[in-house]
LacI family DNA-binding transcriptional regulator (Hymenobacter ginsengisoli), 339 residues
Amino acid sequence: MEPATLKDIARELNISVSTVSRALRDSYEINPETKRLVMECAARLHYRPNPIALSLKGSSSKAIGVIVPQIANYYFSQAINGIEEVANQRGYDVLIFQTHEAYDREVANLRQAVARRVDGLLISLSSETNNVSHLQELQQQGTPIVQFDRVSAALDTPRVVADNFAGAFAATEHLLLSGRRRIAHLTIQPWLSITQERLAGYRAALEKHGVPYDESLVRFGTFGPDEVGPLVDELLALEPRPDAFFTASDRLAVGCLAALRQLRIAIPGQVSLIGFTNLTVADMLAPSLSTVEQPATEIGRVAVGRLLDLIEKKHRAAPPSTVTIPTTLVVRESSGGVG
């Protein structure tokens, strides 16, 4: 017996093929009663969409691409969990690509995603990316894109981010309220959105408490494994030297912790330390690490939900907006809190 087609359903219900197609995609353009009739008829006729044929026609492949800097990064692995959870519930496969923080890899990942005919794209920019023309071009071709975590204002898409400003403000204020005044800030490339937002929160907390911003206490770097030690050495050579470190990621904080311990500097006795992410091992470090918790899984869920709504045209077109999800300060031993 030949499998049923869209034409068979349309003929059965005396409606157009395009109406059947949109009803099966749950488009907002089709009223609920028509959707119900189409779904019932599709089930009765044992209609099954052919994903290969759909892809060849340029229609839905029921797959989305997700481009992240690094899957091994705790934050991104948690975000991917949230993305896959929602995508799978809504019948989509997830193709994951990682840039390893390289712009060239990001461009190559984008080409691979397009070659695999993904219906849309979720992306968190690599640390080298300060030009988003490759993404603008894809968007102009009609591919739905949603940015999350590391985003660019030059790309006019929905964005889903953590409240980086508030998290950095809370971390810095916590250090100030504990009596610290020379707070060093280790962060990553200055053009990244998360860098700018966390630096702004750090500066705002200093200003609120009447502590002048000192540019010499701020260091920009990458995620290189051997980079943190020399930066810590540079900062500790200053006079007066820092009495606290606030890092823009827990990965940097762990490197900072190792460097301070190697120098036999007591934490938090001589120097306080606080990070940003909340690694699963943060409370098992010695001392346990104070940090700002980012709701990575929730960010993943919200971001993919926005993307799938764009793909399925469930809502009428609205200007792209930014969804900001709150962060939480977690105080532990490294900043003088209770472990």
Notes: Residues 51-57 have pLDDT under 50 and may be disordered. The first helix runs from residue 6 to 13. The first strand starts at residue 63 and ends at 68. The chain has three domains: 6-48, 63-162+296-325, 164-294+328-335.
